[in-house]
Amino acid sequence: MNLEHINALKALLSTSKKIAIVPHKNPDGDAIGSTLALCHYLNSKNHKAVIVSPNDFPKFLKWMPGNEAILNFEKENSQSKKALEEADIVFTLDFNHLGRVGQMTKTLEGLDTTFVMVDHHQQPSDYAEIMYSDVNMSSTCEMVYNLISYLGDLDSINKDMANCIYTGIMTDTGSFKFKATTSNTHRVIADLMDRGAEGTEIHHRIYDTNSPSRLHLLGCALKNMVILEEFNTAYITLSQAELDKYNYEKGDTEGFVNYGLTLEGIRFAVIFIENKEEGILKISFRSVGDFSVNEFARNHFDGGGHTNAAGGRSEKSISETTTYFKSLLPKYKESLTA
Question: Is domain 212-337 in CATH 3.40.50.620, yes or no?
Answer without folding.
Answer: no
